[in-house]
Amino acid sequence: MSKKINLTMLTDFYEITMANGYFKSGFQNRIAYFDMFFRRIPDNGGYAIAAGLENLIDYFKNLKFEDEDIAYLRSKGIFDEAFLEYLSDFKFCCDVWAVPEGTPIFPGEPIITVRGPIIQAQFVETMVLLTINHQSLIATKTSRIVRAAQGRGVMEFGTRRAHGADAAIDGARAAYIGGCVGTACTVSDRDCGVPALGTMAHSWVQMFDNEYEAFKVYAEMYPDNCVLLIDTYNVLKSGLPSAIKVFKELKPASMGVRIDSGDVTYLTKKTREILDQEGLYDCKIVISNSMDEYLIRDLIIQGACIDSFGVGERLITAKSEPVFGGVYKLAAIEKDGEIIPKIKISENIEKITNPGFKSVYRLYDKDTDKAVADVITLDGEKIPEGSNYEIFDPDVVWKRKTVSNFYAKNLRKQIFKNGEQVYESPKLEDIKNYCSEQISTLWEEMLRFENPHEYYVDLSRDLWELKTRLLEQANK
Description:
The chain is of the alpha/beta class.
């Protein structure tokens, strides 16, 4: 990817005021652990998709305060001069663990953990959330849309509807991870490797005296990707007949027609019928417009003849639920070499955090390779493979299940050690393929759009007992 501007100051102002306070209180070397996790799956879906880690790695690697940053902070008149000198010599030295991009993730699981001096570990909160929340949201929405398409290609066409340039670029990347075949966003091809796709707009057709002339010129220039937009005037009376005439005369290597409006089911059925009557069996039908997973599913149920979809605003903005809702919470500190767990308590059960430095294991059935459950453990715990293992609902502990004939995988990888990157980001194509493979490990019941099966995310007994003990101590 091309080098971006220094994003160090893209942070909530309270991160800096707290950092100054930590410094003046002598806490600047106190080690803290922060977890980034989310509480609810968008659209009440069965799973979410982790995305954005590569961008976050770039942020960590380039985290430094420029002279103009220090000058700005000094101008506020509220920061200690010794603190500003500390920032001038700032070097990221944290440890970071993360779930790899493309992994299905579930509420409560620590997707990212940052361990390091409290000033640093706290300061990165905003960018961790901004980056992971956005791309995980778009990857998750895309996965739903791609599944609805049932093997038909889905192209991300939302650049002009995105919430700014970065949302368009990073959103196209996340959409590719989630299963799109490409994007309309050219710069995402250049910088991220997402294949750029696209043919013509209605204005191209309008510039010529008639549709036949517009299509003929285009087919002569792009015979290997000749997709003609046939709804500028009238799909069946003028657009399709003109396209057929060009296809038969020039015989381009790749033929397709695109419809961007009208009664899609009726028009695609009639278009397919006419194309087949003309012997153009290989001509593809592409549909674009305000599509989402529900519209796509309904069109397919109605028998619409569609080979691929261009999906815009409802994908790139995750219009149905445009907030992922990840949070970043303190989980532990170190004092005199000992890890001291921390917990945030709330009257809302879902807002009570899981304390301590943790790992996340996914249990798979050995016979089917399907995911059975996830278990959040304290770091260093091992899941005892080769024997029965009891899991239980951490909120309703009488709900228990004994798992046997399984194997366990630690979902998280160490990304940074003492501020040095120790993890190499896979190629984007490999992340996309990995995502598809991991979704295939989920049970069909979890893939429903309405009322999907709730996947088990349990706590190990040691973690549950630690959490219970801290809750009891807080209530004394």
